Amino acid sequence: MHDMSVKWPNGARCAVMLTFDFDAETLWTSRDPDNANRPGVLSQGKYGAKVGVPKILDTLEEEGLKGTFFVPGWTAENHTGRVEMILKAGHEVGHHSYSHRWVSDDPAAEVEEMEKGLEALKRTVGVVPKGYRSPAGEVSAGLFKLLQKHNFLYNSSLMDDINPYRHILPDGSKGPVELPWHWSLDDAPYALFSVKSPRPIFTNAHMLDVYKEEFREIYKWGGLYDIIFHPQIVGRPSRIALLRELIAFIRTFPDVWFATGTEVAEAWVAEYEKA
Amino acid sequence: MHDMSVKWPNGARCAVMLTFDFDAETLWTSRDPDNANRPGVLSQGKYGAKVGVPKILDTLEEEGLKGTFFVPGWTAENHTGRVEMILKAGHEVGHHSYSHRWVSDDPAAEVEEMEKGLEALKRTVGVVPKGYRSPAGEVSAGLFKLLQKHNFLYNSSLMDDINPYRHILPDGSKGPVELPWHWSLDDAPYALFSVKSPRPIFTNAHMLDVYKEEFREIYKWGGLYDIIFHPQIVGRPSRIALLRELIAFIRTFPDVWFATGTEVAEAWVAEYEKA
Amino acid sequence: MHDMSVKWPNGARCAVMLTFDFDAETLWTSRDPDNANRPGVLSQGKYGAKVGVPKILDTLEEEGLKGTFFVPGWTAENHTGRVEMILKAGHEVGHHSYSHRWVSDDPAAEVEEMEKGLEALKRTVGVVPKGYRSPAGEVSAGLFKLLQKHNFLYNSSLMDDINPYRHILPDGSKGPVELPWHWSLDDAPYALFSVKSPRPIFTNAHMLDVYKEEFREIYKWGGLYDIIFHPQIVGRPSRIALLRELIAFIRTFPDVWFATGTEVAEAWVAEYEKA
Amino acid sequence: MHDMSVKWPNGARCAVMLTFDFDAETLWTSRDPDNANRPGVLSQGKYGAKVGVPKILDTLEEEGLKGTFFVPGWTAENHTGRVEMILKAGHEVGHHSYSHRWVSDDPAAEVEEMEKGLEALKRTVGVVPKGYRSPAGEVSAGLFKLLQKHNFLYNSSLMDDINPYRHILPDGSKGPVELPWHWSLDDAPYALFSVKSPRPIFTNAHMLDVYKEEFREIYKWGGLYDIIFHPQIVGRPSRIALLRELIAFIRTFPDVWFATGTEVAEAWVAEYEKA
């Protein structure tokens, strides 16, 4: 049998990261720059800032939980008050590019997105992020060196594991810790409709079925449950109910550690690299 | 906690707008002008007029409810008797463009669609609409000025809120009240199949699950439940059953205010701007 | 209230047509001629002839029901034995084009498909069809004249009603009776997967949910339930079980008339045009 | 009635082949060569090797079952240890092309993929495969001659039957035995999401519903249940639970023969060709 369990702090069997990619309008402008002139299209992103973030924060506060919000620089500049609201409530803010551009084929753009994003987060809300998540999991081969250069503790952009692991660069030096994710633990594949990309809208029951089935098995294996929400999606009334129900479900299991990205990465390093 | 509740008339906790976008054939001709010469394709739209509208009107009559029908000018010209039937039954008729063209990138076309639509509604059925809904939520930045010019009370085209709000134009003047909608409260994402755009056909149970989950939470928040049907979709036999079941479900909740677009917008203005 | 009920023979409340479009390989070759050289792709169509048809015939025999099979000329030429098996079991064979080409934009091709199909059906299996169904509901404006010329009793290609009606040509003469269909009562939108057109595969429960919900309401309205299967789809083991379950469900309702296309059209004419 | 039952060894009513196409990164590089430079995209394939294969092997070991793994040559070269792990556990390894390229329109590429794949399997893990499965069911008309030339016992690439059958070549000589498959008994149509191809992610319940319904009827007919998994898909935590549940479900039926591809093909030959 292949035991893949991780030793989590205080004997927890499983770590849970509730993460929120606060793309706002950038989800639409990065896919088609012309969307910047389409108020109807953009209103879908604006909803995330206007309604989604406050309602998510309420939910996390009711549950006494801290989340990890990955924020593009553009969002920090254009919805500064909302990012401050997130920080004031004690949540972690990570880096999520500047404009949500896909840069897997353009390492120079990846550098630009990284640096502009860092600058914007610092200038607008005073954040130096410890974690990075790429838009849609699209990264270039240069990303790991770039994250090392900017002293990132962790990356959460790859899908090749269910446990944290250390990136080792070609020169043998240490890159960031990876905190893997997967499309099945994301809200966008299930609830982000557009006429031009006919992705169906699923029920809460459907989404919870997948999320819960993944949880049960990751709990059994002793791994990391890194789930990805978006304020413009999970912020819809029905989906806030889904978020509450998922948390309630997870809480029926003993020995679960809810943690932020930084907490997970630091615990993994403490257990596996500093012992 | 972020209270987003609205004060509705008579202490209602939630307002419900049952709306019907009576596109008929324009849904197909606006997406591909060649469809005008394809009787098989067009027959899907014709169904909305021939069967959908009468069956919807029967359902609303049985329930003693008034709906809001957004009607393209082309539909008023080509299915005049059906629009008269809607008016005679006491429902509201709003503006839904002339030909269902998407005009977000073409403000001149938006003006033309607006004016031709107004003229057609006036000439054919004597209606001067108080409300506007754009096709597919596609609007240009010029829309709000245009709605102001034509004295529209409300717009129902954006997705950036769950409550009514007032558009303020760049010059500081008042535009229309917005009555927001969302794709998840629409029948088209779930039940409009075409070979060329492989959108799956979902069950009533699936659609009702999303609609009910949205309702429960909007009711809890105290907001506006603005649901969008299409005679060519909800008019199918099975979907008329869905409409009945949704209404019956909503009626199990106390203090719900079923209202037309005009009633919702006027109540919001009376409460928030004239107090 | 808008009563749309039809007077069916012997006081039946509802007529049910079980129809089977026996496309075989033409479903793939008509969409992409290169598929003719791809044995893997074609094998999906061959299944309809090899396994689908015999298993459908077994099911209909067990139930003592007659179906209506719409057969392209190509299929009659290349799976002659299977079409003879259908005829020998007493089912109706209708016209379904020659090669399943979409001809809505090409009236000359429509004429060619019509004539080649008629010739092939006559030559291979001795059938002069009374009914026509176009591939995918795609027809040109010339179809009705063409059906009149070839003395078709009925057409089953449009979606603008739930009841039979008579086509009247521009010159005032009578065209065929229309027996309408709809995508929701078809197996292809739910169970025809291809990598290039990512249409999801649904469960029997999902399909039966839609089919049953449509049936309940059409039964209530007193209309025509014209359901469309394909041997290459409904012939899969699981879908044969679906066909059995649908028939069993319908049989729990009293006063249902199972009939072929010709029987339905003749009954409608007898009731509404010859009285 | 058309009896299509097969005489399986020891009076079994049904044969079950659990197969696993171990594509790893080739699923992405074969669809778009640029993916080779996108670590985020590739990480989805790497997961199959890193986590998927060991967890599948654990599951099969717990159940005491042998599977059939179809392995591209590239995978054997780049994940040699994982293929050795499969062999050591006693499972069958078959041929699955060299690079997962689609070759239906390019017989020369099919030859190249065949020969490079054979060479790689031999060199890296010492396997001379008896069975072949094409990527995505895409084959050219030359495949059967090619399989004959390389002495393949069986092919599992076509969808035109539910039972094994013998390919006869144009010259009348014997090609391989076909062990048919179908998209509905595959995990990829239900659980392989990508932004560029918006295929929805379904629940275990949905997938099991289809898989079980197919099983019940194939069991009833007495045929072959050839189900296709992918380590990069079924290896996800939730899907490993699905695999366990499917096996448990099948085991509630008496007289089921779990077998590898070679065992099924040899039994069919022994019964139908050597008797």
Automatic annotation (TrEMBL), chains A, B, C, D:
InterPro entries reported for this sequence: Glyco_hydro/deAcase_b/a-brl, NODB_dom, PgdA-like
Residues annotated as domain NodB homology: 39-275
Sample GO molecular function, one term: hydrolase activity, acting on carbon-nitrogen (but not peptide) bonds
GO biological process: carbohydrate metabolic process
Xref: Pfam families: Polysacc_deac_1
PANTHER family: POLYSACCHARIDE DEACETYLASE FAMILY PROTEIN (AFU_ORTHOLOGUE AFUA_6G05030)
Family statement drawn from the similarity comment of this UniProt entry: Belongs to the polysaccharide deacetylase family.
Primary role: Is involved in generating a small heat-stable compound (Nod), an acylated oligomer of N-acetylglucosamine, that stimulates mitosis in various plant protoplasts.
Protein name: Chitooligosaccharide deacetylase
